[in-house]
From TrEMBL, chains A, B:
UniProt KW keywords: Glycosyltransferase, Ligase, Phosphoprotein, Pyridine nucleotide biosynthesis, Transferase
GO MF annotations in UniProt: glycosyltransferase activity
Pathway given in the UniProt record: Cofactor biosynthesis; NAD(+) biosynthesis; nicotinate D-ribonucleotide from nicotinate: step 1/1
Pfam families: NAPRTase, NAPRTase_N
Protein's name according to its UniProt entry: Nicotinate phosphoribosyltransferase
Reactions the enzyme catalyzes: 5-phospho-alpha-D-ribose 1-diphosphate + nicotinate + ATP + H2O = nicotinate beta-D-ribonucleotide + ADP + phosphate + diphosphate
Annotated family: Belongs to the NAPRTase family.
Source species of the chain: Bifidobacterium panos
Domain Nicotinate phosphoribosyltransferase N-terminal as annotated: residue spans: 8-132
Post-translational modification: Transiently phosphorylated on a His residue during the reaction cycle. Phosphorylation strongly increases the affinity for substrates and increases the rate of nicotinate D-ribonucleotide production. Dephosphorylation regenerates the low-affinity form of the enzyme, leading to product release.
InterPro entries: Aldolase_TIM, N/Namide_PRibTrfase, NAPRTase_N, Nic_PRibTrfase-Fam, Nic_PRibTrfase_pncB, Nicotinate_pribotase-like_C
Enzyme Commission identifier(s): 6.3.4.21
Amino acid sequence: MVDYSPALMTDMYEYTMLDACMKDGTANRKCVFEVFTRHLPAGRRYGVLAGTGRILDALERFHLDDEDLRFLADRKVVSPQTIKWLENFRFSGSIKGYREGEMFFPNSPVLQIEGTFGECTLLETLVLSILNYDSAVASAASRMVTAAKDRPCMDMGGRRTNEWAAVAAARASVVGGFQGTANLLASQLYGLKAIGTAAHCFTLVHDSEKNAFESQIAALGKNTTLLVDTYNIEQAVQTAVEVAGPELGGVRIDSGDLAALAQRVRNQLDALGATNTRITVTNDLDEYAIAALQTAPVDSYGVGTMLVTGSGAPTCAMVYKLTEREGADGAMAPVMKKSKDKATVPGRKLAYRSYEYGLADAEHVVSGSEDKLASFQPKDEWKDLLVPYVDHGQIDAQWQGHDAIMRAHDYRAKALAELPITAQSLMKGDPVISTEVSVL
Amino acid sequence: MVDYSPALMTDMYEYTMLDACMKDGTANRKCVFEVFTRHLPAGRRYGVLAGTGRILDALERFHLDDEDLRFLADRKVVSPQTIKWLENFRFSGSIKGYREGEMFFPNSPVLQIEGTFGECTLLETLVLSILNYDSAVASAASRMVTAAKDRPCMDMGGRRTNEWAAVAAARASVVGGFQGTANLLASQLYGLKAIGTAAHCFTLVHDSEKNAFESQIAALGKNTTLLVDTYNIEQAVQTAVEVAGPELGGVRIDSGDLAALAQRVRNQLDALGATNTRITVTNDLDEYAIAALQTAPVDSYGVGTMLVTGSGAPTCAMVYKLTEREGADGAMAPVMKKSKDKATVPGRKLAYRSYEYGLADAEHVVSGSEDKLASFQPKDEWKDLLVPYVDHGQIDAQWQGHDAIMRAHDYRAKALAELPITAQSLMKGDPVISTEVSVL
């Protein structure tokens, strides 16, 4: 099993800023930080938020042990005063945000972190790492699942991304609509359905393909999926049904013209009486390849590289920005940076999605003084997009673990169905609804 | 600190194949597996290998604890016989491969794993995850470093990739020629130089930019780097020098037209007497943006998104293939799959690079029977590309830890300088040398 703290999975400047603010007193100022992206990847219609549950897991693990503190002290990253503060560090602030599986758009405030400057700053890098990667994978997964229609998509991408990212990708792919993963650690940690077939080396290590198939069926039963493209596919399918009989669970094709091969293999299986034997295809699939296979007799898709690398968009460009903070007078004041092309909208935000005839027609991001926000009345049919995750340090456990992932999986399908159908198109274009930012 | 085993960071089928082969006896067959890529990312001239040292670290950590074994048993991933074998699992095979920092090309056998089928199979997913991601980052880093010429490049990308991938990316970026990283855990684990400036929120949480600069200098000294684009850059530079004096270490610009702004800021700093104050630029830099800044008075580059996502190529498409195995007669026999477009070259490989006038002109991959390989005589000027990493389970520790990373860092520069200079061009094209595969 795994045991670690994410406390140092962060940019050094989070700690040096904390230290400077400890010295001048601003570390204790109340703050509101906001996570959002300025734009979706080019041509994408929507994004799917994922990773929030992992942030909550990370908060629980977040502590500095003696070795970490010694490292920070020896390297003079922070001063002894800050070391002392860090010894008992525990996030005591509050977090709201979009649900996992919720759609997001440019300027959607997908996460809001409220607390002291010191404690919120320490979370910046970690929060962004998690949301940027997980949401990139979930967003790609969602497009693939749409292209696959009712056929299940399975994550087989672990080998094409960092070994820990693979675990996060498996989880995010399920949030994004996938049905299972090849990754065992993801299955162990999150209770996800683990799936698998066999590799070419399994056939090659045996003296014949027949021996290999017999061995796999002896170990895993007739419902297993046999890999049939190590040598000659037609011969392999023949052998597979000879060995397993018509009850053979499935075959996998991993090379060549997948549509044409699936058609040939389907006809061959049917002729052999194996009419219920499923066909799984793999081989650098992405949402476009899956869409192109719609008319082919394929039963499920194993997706690798393009899933775990976000299908051309391996990150979401999410940023973590201070939008409001306590001033010297103790009053909360909105703040904004004015950097060219990167200016921020000041103030804490409310976020709603409005609907017409049951279809979303806009994202409403509302900012203003705390007084005005408190008395703001959204329209009846608006959906409040912000749910509470952490209340003064208390994590709401309903957003963690297996059940939360499966609820997010279901929620994504529902939320996507409520968007204009253009969202389900693979045609490049603008975000399918616009984000209206207003200041009260 | 971190403590974990990577034993379940793998696709389930590695364990189910092991189990089937335990039952039929082939798990004990001696095997040779090979890692290679069939192609470089489109237009790339070379790749830079990284991650091998992390594979050795992972081998040391690789064990299954009671919880892992119970998981595999409860889920019926493997049978009780295999659980027993896994209880004491320790890789007892041998590994050779390219050095970290070495250039690789299509079909370069960057890693060779020899051992029983069972033990080699369990490593497949993990080995590929590490090499595919780390080499993607190192390959991108190397192009950026070339574009930056003598100016240092620093990794600031952790927030744009998975939080663990961030640590691997920091390490791989240094193998690829970077000088340091913002990532604290990478600094702690690998002794890498940690660097950092400040974020916009640091300026915003203070009552004025001047207060923020004073605070940072009080905490970190005048040699620190101040972020000057939160409000108005010209005003910020004025304030920065007022506060720190001409000894100010540096300023960072994170938005706008970086070349034009660097020029203005340089002139302003010089006019204020701060002639030694360095200018760092950041903001979605990639190798092309860095090349475009060659004539601008920039002193260092902070690179984020495009580094940790491989600058358009977030994985290397490396595969792990069985090339030779013991047969029923106990003799080693080359094997190959014949899948369309994915056939493999059978047999264990030797690998050399040949030179003419001190410049590499080809990669030579030599295969054949063990007898013929044993008596093969490379030409005098050929470089043997395979170094021994693990000998019958014994890891050669010289390839692990900080010193190994810095040697790889130096080695990359040397190996790149020995390639035709076209390799250093950002123009898209074919691999700069070709790989000649021959069978003895």
